[in-house]
Amino acid sequence: MDRGGSSSARDPGFGSGSARSGGLGRELDRARDRDRVRESSDIVEVIREHLALVPSGREFKAICPFHDDHKPSMYVVPSKQIYHCFSCGATGDVFTFVMKYLGLEFREALEMLAERAGIELTRLVPAERRADDDAVPLEQIREALALAGDFYRSVLHNSDHGRAAREMVASRGISAAMVERFALGAAPDDWERLCKALRAKGVTEAAMVAAGVAKAREGAGGRSGCYDMLRNRLVFPIHAQHGKAIAFGGRKVNPEDEPKYLNTPETPVFKKGKTLYGIAQAMPEVIRTGRVVVVEGYVDVIACHQYGFTNVVGTLGTALTRDHARLLRGRAREVILLFDADEAGRRAAFRAGEVFFPEPLDVRVAASPEAVGAEAKDPDELLAESGGGEVLEAMLERSTDVLGLRFEALRDRVAGLGPAATGAAIEEELRRLVEIGINEVEPVRRRYAVHQVAGVLGLSAYEVERMLPTGRSAARRGASADDTEGGEHERYTPGDTLSVGELLLGCAMACPEAIGASDRDVLRADAYSHPLLRTVAQGVEAVLASGGAPGLDPVLRAIGDDEPAREAAIALASHVERIHKVERRNGRGQDESQARLGHAWREAVARARRERGGATTLEAKPISVAGLSSPAPGSADAIAAAMRAKVKLKQALGRDPAALPRPYGE
């Protein structure tokens, strides 16, 4: 895509094809483009690129990535192009999912989905950039990162400054396809080459520093400004899940330079403990196979992909964290750690097992190279040898459950100890199991751990269960604290009981055909005190005023880019539909569901008119939705419901009159 602005003829850092589409800071015509992109972006296919989806009737379900989910709680509804989690309330359309899941702003989500669908977006005159802001906008940080990536790639391919890096690529056996797949680049042996190139593209020095690609001078000798963070290095862009560069790693090409590897620092868009190298490239295969392999190092990841192991990711010089576990859950069922076979690698594997323990992930440790008849080597060295791929495959297939290794180590530790020392070791192990979450995991995983400890002690599982301390894990306590912080923006979640106003809005979006011409007066936006519901009601009013039926999709279009209001509309419509949803049998379930929604609408309209006299809003009095779902005695709906009940009874008991229960008293 064109990145805006002409490439500099004087600077070798920007070659042909490096311009970026749209230019810096340009605004998009969202109202016009959003509908085109949304219609071309099937939510099932978009979410399937990031999460493992399981069919569930006419819908799909997945592990919700927006809360600590351990069973599929998030449903994706193709007919309405929405998703909704009935556990945490996360809800939205394809834009909301991309924004929340990938941490993007609306403009970035729109651009990403447009590029995916091959749609060219309408562009407006760019707004003037404010250079006096204290905090650099994320948009400018991401722009600096994107242009820096273009610069590094251009140096590697088109400049004499990249010769040493190209020689290193060749010496490590990295193919041209992998250079392209991982967008490798080179940093020239120059203190200011990148800064000058970005400055020529309109990037501020503050944005360069905030993006981590430059460092501010301290002003010694009267000099100011900034200088390049990476110099004379082979550059490995670090991509987020959405495929855009968020940081860079550099390997020295001059043996005398130190350190061997150098990463750009953490920034507002990059946290090492939340990122895995190669995650964007590996995710399709991870979701397809349900397995992810974790290694240490950029070159190891690239070598594995080059030899067909495309579900491999790498850590970034840190231990695996809870955020890494959250990143992988819902996408993979099995994590295989391909760490060094020494004691340090073993400890790292045990730590990873503890971190991942509360998640619905099976963590395994790959067999050592010696176990499959090979010398201890890094994956890239192993794969470079004849038959290396088969050896690596054997190591992965012989991987061992990390909990099993943990309890083997416990058995070795207590072997030969006296009763008191053994008891102390077991108590310590049980305390640690509680800390990492044994009291909160699913029953199968808990039983497995308990049986393992029982085997070490020679006791029954029941006895070990009684020995387990009570309490919550430290990780879960921390997660709970995090969940309560930062609730800055207002959010709407429908409760167990709905007000008349909530039911009216929900039924209007779920069953717009039930709205009669004389009913429209009850859908007044000024009757709602909650600002998000008021916005949703305004959307319903706008659709009705245009002569349309206010189903969920047209209401979302009318709401526009107000994401909290869009989420409120989807949550309310989904909640009302769920209450009145019936099991579909022989194609009649949908008709019955619509009949229930229609009845609920009529009852809510009547209730709203009765209560309107003294009420200032339609939200003051919660009512039982379940009560509204039952037809009034003697009504046509009640008679139809009784007939359906008799049909079901006859279907269950057969046509033999003797099998039918007699009325009481006969």
What is the topology?
Layout: H1 30-39, H2 43-48, E1 54-56, E2 59-62, E3 74-77, E4 82-85, E5 91-92, H3 94-102, H4 106-117, H5 138-158, H6 163-171, H7 176-181, E6 185-187, H8 193-200, H9 205-211, E7 214-216, E8 226-228, E9 233-239, E10 245-252, E11 261-263, H10 279-289, E12 291-296, H11 298-306, E13 312-315, H12 322-328, E14 334-337, H13 343-356, E15 362-365, H14 379-384, H15 388-397, E16 400-401, H16 402-414, H17 419-436, H18 443-457, H19 461-467, H20 474-484, E17 498-499, H21 500-510, H22 531-545, H23 552-559, H24 563-580, H25 589-611, E18 622-623, H26 625-628, H27 636-653
Parallel strand pairs: 12-13, 12-14, 14-15
Antiparallel strand pairs: 1-2, 2-3, 3-4, 4-5, 6-9, 7-8, 9-10, 10-11, 15-16, 17-18
